[in-house]
Amino acid sequence: MDLGIKGKRGLVCASSKGLGLGCARALAEAGVDLVMNARGAETLEAEAQRIRDDFGVDVKTVACDITTEAGQARVLEAAGAVDILVTNAGGPPPGMWTDWDREDFIAALDANMLAPIALMKALLPGMMERGWGRVVNITSQSVKSPIPVLGLSNSARAGLTGYVAGTARQVAGKGVNINNLLPGIHDTDRAAALDKGAAEREGIAVDQARENREGTIPAGRYGTKEEFGATCAFLCSEHAGYIVGQNILLDGGAVNSTL
């Protein structure tokens, strides 16, 4: 399917690996020129070069921490006028409610709520003026089904979801669509870290921890960054212009709900 976005310009945050990289590659395959961001310069540039080689699109890299004001300023300066924004950042560490103090919540809000909001505030006006834009925020299945050990993530991402719910409906009339993608467990470094933590808590092997988690997913497996990226690219396409302010689960059926 031709997504109708060849020649568009997209900013994909935290895109040197994992779900962010899956989104960057899918957009590049559709012909989108990219600005890629991540903290690690070496890995970021290596993946950017693979994308250049594989898809022939223009790729600019900005190595910095997107969760900081300084990092956001650098990325926005390099990005210029973009048509597509994919926000993403690593999730806060797991723990229990007794573990977290005010500073922990502030850090989670900065990374997983306030940083995406700052990027949207900076880039939405230009999209609206040009009459076309797409924003996809990578959040979490925990927005719909809270995960006890990820209380910091539950809180920050729920706040972002509320912000998007109102904002998306204010900008849709200008041709700008904002939606959220809610991943369940995908085969990424984050999943590996969670499996390792579960293995240590339960005194089992990491492979067994993964197998146990896969057993809770109706699809019987972890998701892949490629299928996640393809969904992101569709939401950024010309065909998704009537999808506004939605929270789309990619979780293999793990969240058991009717709506």
Please provide a written account of the structure.
The protein has 259 residues and is α/β, with parallel strands linked by helices. It is 47% helix and 14% strand. Strand 2 (33-38), helix 2 and strand 3 (59-63) form a beta-alpha-beta unit. The longest helix is centred in the middle third of the chain and has 29 residues, at 102-130. The chain is globular and about 55 Å long.
SSE blueprint and pairings:
Blueprint: E1 9-12, H1 18-29, E2 33-38, H2 41-55, E3 59-63, H3 69-79, E4 84-87, H4 102-130, E5 133-138, H5 151-171, E6 176-183, H6 189-202, H7 206-214, H8 225-235, E7 247-250
Parallel strand pairs: 1-2, 1-4, 2-3, 4-5, 5-6, 6-7
Helix pairs in contact: 1-2, 1-8, 4-5, 6-7
